[in-house]
């Protein structure tokens, strides 16, 4: 019989590419991972990997098993969720991941509601860039997390994960209020404030600017949007800011940009019916909806240069 833990190592090898990377994720030594994969080959009765020095490649049988392993692991997740649903009240540790903007806005009310309605849950929140979320879910470092992409930088489908919609936001070009800029094209020779290279927001900004026909000239790299807006107000450059982070500032004008930021609530495939996961999803969606209603009620009329922020 095939060992489920070893199947997980095999799928991780397919995703990560090297035994060393798999070992790092699981806090094993590379030798231990190799031994577990060799044991899986004995269980399967066929060679799964071809070894050339330190490199490994999947055999045809290995590729077949990787495809079927994903089905098995998803079924195990679904089975765990079904067993947990037998309990009358969700309990236990739930590890939640979120990007910084959501931690400041949507997440607090959701945590309060979960603590009130489900006192048996132990909630642990980690702040991380959306680009790191899928791996954290697959590696079981998180149970529920906010998965994000932009329409200019769409996320690739992942057979091990599924998600439900949470927010769909406008994206604005933030410029100093007295700057003679009316659109993206006007920033071609302007200094930019970009996120750290390797983050989703950095990649989205690059793609938006390339679509407008230029590569942005980075002066600063800042990930906190409050700090970004403060620098824009101080005339230190222009930046892209999503609606959820677009706090009103009299020294800053926001100009509509033809792109959207999309946030979804992600979890491992098969876990949707787990009571703890379902409770977190319900609380996050209720919090996002309530935040939207509050923002709509105080929002001034919008024009292309108004300052406004509202999740949609």
From TrEMBL:
Q: Can you name a GO cellular component term?
A: protein-DNA complex
Q: What is an example of a GO molecular function annotated in this UniProt entry?
A: DNA binding
Q: Name the keywords, alphabetized.
A: DNA-binding, Transcription, Transcription regulation
Q: Which residues form the HTH lysR-type domain?
A: 2-59
Transmembrane segments annotated in the record for this chain: none
Q: Is this entry keyworded Nucleotide-binding?
A: no
Pfam families documented for this protein:
HTH_1, LysR_substrate
Q: Does the keyword ATP-binding apply?
A: no
Highest taxon of the lineage: Bacteria
PROSITE patterns this protein is in? HTH_LYSR
PANTHER family the record matches: LYSR SUBSTRATE-BINDING, TRANSCRIPTIONAL DUAL REGULATOR HCAR-RELATED
Assigned protein family: Belongs to the LysR transcriptional regulatory family.
Q: Which protein is depicted?
A: Putative LysR-family transcriptional regulator
Species in which this protein is naturally found: Actinoplanes missouriensis (strain ATCC 14538 / DSM 43046 / CBS 188.64 / JCM 3121 / NBRC 102363 / NCIMB 12654 / NRRL B-3342 / UNCC 431)
Q: What is the lineage of its organism?
A: Bacteria, Bacillati, Actinomycetota, Actinomycetes, Micromonosporales
């Amino acid at each position: 019989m095939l060992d489920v833990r070893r199947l997980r190592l095999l799928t991780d090898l397919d995703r990560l590419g090297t035994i060393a990377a798999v070992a790092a994720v699981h806090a094993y030594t590379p030798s231990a991972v190799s031994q577990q994969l060799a044991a899986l080959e004995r269980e399967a009765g066929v060679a799964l990997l071809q070894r050339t020095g330190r490199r490994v490649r999947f055999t045809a049988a290995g590729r077949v098993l990787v495809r079927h392993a994903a089905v098995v692991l998803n079924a195990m997740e679904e089975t765990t969720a079904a067993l947990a649903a037998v309990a009358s009240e969700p309990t236990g540790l739930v590890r939640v991941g979120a990007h910084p903007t959501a931690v400041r806005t949507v997440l607090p009310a959701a945590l309060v509601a979960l603590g009130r309605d489900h006192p048996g849950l132990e909630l642990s929140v980690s702040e991380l860039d959306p680009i790191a979320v899928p791996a954290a879910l697959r590696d079981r470092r998180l149970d529920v997390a906010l998965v994000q992409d932009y329409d200019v930088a769409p996320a690739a489908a992942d057979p091990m994960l599924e998600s439900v919609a949470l927010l769909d936001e406008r994206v604005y070009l933030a410029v100093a209020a007295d700057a003679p800029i009316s659109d993206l094209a006007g920033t071609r020779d302007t200094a930019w404030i970009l996120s750290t290279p390797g983050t989703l927001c950095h990649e989205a900004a690059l793609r938006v600017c390339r679509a407008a026909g230029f590569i942005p000239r980075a002066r600063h790299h800042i990930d906190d949007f409050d700090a970004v807006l403060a620098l824009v107000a101080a005339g230190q450059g222009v930046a892209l800011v999503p609606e959820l982070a677009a706090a009103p500032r009299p020294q800053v004008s926001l100009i509509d940009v033809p792109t959207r930021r999309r946030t979804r609530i992600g979890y491992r495939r098969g876990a949707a019916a787990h009571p703890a996961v379902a409770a977190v999803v319900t609380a996050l969606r209720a919090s996002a909806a309530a935040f939207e209603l509050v923002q709509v009620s105080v929002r001034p009329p919008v024009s292309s240069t108004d300052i406004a922020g509202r999740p949609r």
